[in-house]
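Fill in residues.
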C-alpha cells in the first residue's frame, strides 16, 4: 500500500506498543511542563484565559499535547478564522469557546498522528462535517490525496471555501451521501470521527477500500462495547490505541483495521 511520511509532528501520549513522538515527550513531562490552573473548565495562563490569536492557538495546542510546525500552525489559524466567521448559526460546530474548539477539534484531530508512522496516500474522510478530522489531517500531512465526504450543501460550500482560501492541493469534496454504490474509486485508506458504528462504515466503503487498505476510526470510550460486538469479516485489527487528551478529561480511542 502506497504511503508517505508526514512532515509535521504531533506531540502526543502513545500507549505501550505504539510509536512515541520523535522528540520523546512523555505524558508526565507534558503534564509537568504545561499544567495550568483552571476556571469554569478553562485553563488559565498568568491567571487569565487566553485571547484567541495565532500565538494563543500554539500555546493551547502545546497544553493539549500537540506541537505543530510554524507553517502548519499558520494554516490552522486561517482555518479557525474561517470556521468562526461562517458559524453564525452554529451549523458547522456547536462549540463556542476558543479553548474548547482547540481541545476537542484541533488537538483531537492532530494527536492521532503519533499513532500512525505513515498515512495511506489516498484517503476518504467519511462524514467530514466542517472538516474534522480531514482538514487538520491534511495540514499536518500535505502529501495525502484526501477526499472529504460530506453531503450537506452548506458544509460542502464551506469545505470548498477552506480548500480555496488555504490553497490546499490534492484535496476535494465529495458532496453526496457516502454509500457502497457512490464510493467506488479505489483508495488506500479511510478515516472517520465519531460517525457511526464501524460495521456500518465498513459496508459503506466496501467498494472503495483496497485489499491491504486501512480504516481508521476515531472514537470515544464507548468504543470498548462496540469492539465486543464487532462482526464484520475480512478485516484484521492492527491498532487499538486508548488515550486521554493531555490536561483534559476527554477520553479517546483510535482503532485501526486492515482489509484482507
Amino acid at each position: 500500500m502506497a504511503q508517505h511520511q508526514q512532515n509535521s509532528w504531533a506531540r502526543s501520549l502513545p500507549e505501550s506498543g505504539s510509536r512515541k513522538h520523535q522528540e520523546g515527550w512523555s505524558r508526565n513531562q507534558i503534564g509537568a511542563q504545561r499544567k495550568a490552573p483552571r476556571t469554569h473548565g478553562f485553563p488559565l495562563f498568568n491567571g487569565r484565559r487566553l485571547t484567541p490569536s495565532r500565538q494563543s492557538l500554539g500555546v493551547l495546542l502545546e497544553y493539549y499535547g500537540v506541537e505543530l510546525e510554524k507553517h502548519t500552525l499558520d494554516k490552522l489559524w486561517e482555518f479557525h478564522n474561517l470556521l468562526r466567521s461562517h458559524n453564525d448559526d452554529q451549523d458547522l460546530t456547536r462549540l463556542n469557546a476558543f479553548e474548547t474548539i482547540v481541545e476537542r477539534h484541533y488537538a483531537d484531530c492532530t494527536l492521532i498522528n503519533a499513532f500512525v508512522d505513515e498515512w495511506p496516500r489516498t484517503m476518504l474522510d467519511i462524514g467530514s462535517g466542517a472538516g474534522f478530522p480531514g482538514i487538520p489531517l491534511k495540514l499536518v500531512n500535505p502529501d495525502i490525496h484526501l477526499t472529504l465526504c460530506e453531503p450537506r450543501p452548506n458544509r460542502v460550500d464551506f469545505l470548498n471555501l477552506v480548500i480555496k482560501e488555504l490553497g490546499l492541493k490534492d484535496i476535494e469534496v465529495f458532496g453526496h451521501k457516502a454509500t457502497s454504490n457512490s464510493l467506488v474509486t479505489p483508495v488506500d485508506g479511510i478515516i472517520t470521527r465519531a460517525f457511526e458504528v464501524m460495521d456500518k462504515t465498513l459496508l459503506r466503503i466496501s467498494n472503495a477500500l483496497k485489499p491491504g487498505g486501512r480504516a481508521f476510526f476515531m472514537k470515544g470510550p464507548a468504543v470498548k462495547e462496540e469492539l465486543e460486538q464487532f462482526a464484520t469479516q475480512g478485516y484484521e485489527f492492527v491498532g487499538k490505541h486508548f488515550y486521554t487528551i493531555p490536561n483534559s478529561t476527554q477520553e479517546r480511542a483510535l482503532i485501526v483495521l486492515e482489509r484482507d
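The helical segments are 27-34, 54-63, 70-85, 98-111, 134-140, 153-166, 198-204, 223-229.
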